[in-house]
Specification:
The chain has 323 residues and is of the alpha+beta class. The protein is 25% helix and 27% strand. The N terminus is likely disordered.
Length: 323
């Protein structure tokens, strides 16, 4: 009987709506005693709260960004990840390490680095958090948002990609790369996989791919610097941002496609085929879908696998592409 009651309780909890409105989350965060203890509102201002796809099954996480009042720069921001449960901040942690953490560099000061490679800004600019050199998006398509940051400890400049640590609800680096004055970085496709191309202090290019088992970006040493120098990433590398592939399980509505760019609509359309295992001659499509766990390549794929819903969705997407 107790097991039945527990099961019913869990089931009902799943049915309860989570806070999806930014204003609700903002109110809860700013009124939290825990947050007020950490951020003195005489000196800090809560300037932005954004949804944060964080730790499964925690589906109600928010990234709160605080600014120092009377700051003379645009880069004195503090990041706080907040998990909201039962209309309160259940857990929270600072997304950047404290300055007294001897094992980590001090990232509490953001610097306005001079990007000498315009491609990366075209690729990730829409994910920028305020005026900082930090960008929030699911860059490796694992369902968890990462924080990509360009920063310095006053001596060495760094490119960092951080992600939550499931064990203690803190953060960890999945990529940490130091560089000199140049800030050359691109997301590129290489041998039907996506990766991050970075130029080091010795003008040598390196390629890092995300390893889903080790949960780190691992260097691909088969890619030579000379070869990487000739490969460039598309400004539309993250055109899939905002696409919900699960919507392809039912007939699409025009509202589902409103606002998407032509490159994004191309991904929408080809995702219909990818869900049935089709492989692609276009390297960018193949590299993109290879990053998703749901994609299972099928060398024996034929269009006979498409359902009536699939065909209707393709037709609707094509109509939008013609516009």
């Amino acid at each position: 009987m107790k097991k039945l009651i527990l099961a019913m309780t869990l089931f009902c909890a799943l049915l309860l709506p989570c806070f999806s409105q930014e204003e609700d989350a903002t109110k809860i965060i700013i009124e939290s005693n825990e947050i007020q203890t950490r951020y003195d509102y005489d000196f800090h201002t809560l300037v932005q709260v954004v949804p944060y796809r964080c730790i499964t099954p925690f589906n109600n996480c928010w990234l709160a960004i605080f600014d120092w009042k009377n700051s003379k720069t645009d880069f004195d921001y503090c990041f706080e990840c907040c998990l909201i449960q039962n209309e309160t901040v259940f857990k929270h942690f600072s997304f950047l390490p404290d300055s007294n953490d001897s094992d980590n560099i001090n990232l509490t000061k953001f610097v306005n680095l001079q990007y000498n490679n315009g491609i990366i800004l075209n690729q990730i600019e829409k994910f920028r958090l305020l005026k900082t050199d930090s960008f929030l998006y699911d860059f490796n398509h694992d369902g968890i948002d990462e924080l990509l940051s360009f920063s310095t400890d006053g001596i060495v400049n760094y490119i960092l990609i951080c992600t939550p640590d499931l064990s203690d609800f803190s953060f960890c680096w999945i990529l940490k790369f130091s560089y000199a004055d140049k800030t050359c970085i691109e997301f590129i496709n290489y041998k039907q996989r996506q990766g991050v191309k970075i130029l080091d202090s010795y003008n040598v290019w390196h390629l890092y791919r995300y390893d889903y088992i080790q949960k780190q970006y691992i260097q691909d040493k088969t890619a030579s610097s000379e070869e990487l120098e000739q490969i460039h990433g598309s400004p539309d590398f993250f055109a899939e941002a905002g696409i919900d592939y699960t919507k392809l399980e039912r007939p699409l509505l025009p509202a589902d496609l409103e606002g998407f760019s032509k490159p994004a609509l191309r991904i929408w359309r080809n995702a219909v085929y990818a869900r049935h295992g089709r492989t692609f001659k276009s390297e960018d499509l193949q590299a993109l879908f290879n990053e998703y766990a749901w994609y299972k390549p099928d060398n024996e794929y034929t269009d006979d696998k498409l359902t009536d819903i699939d065909r209707a969705n393709i037709k609707l997407i094509q109509e939008f592409e013609k516009k």
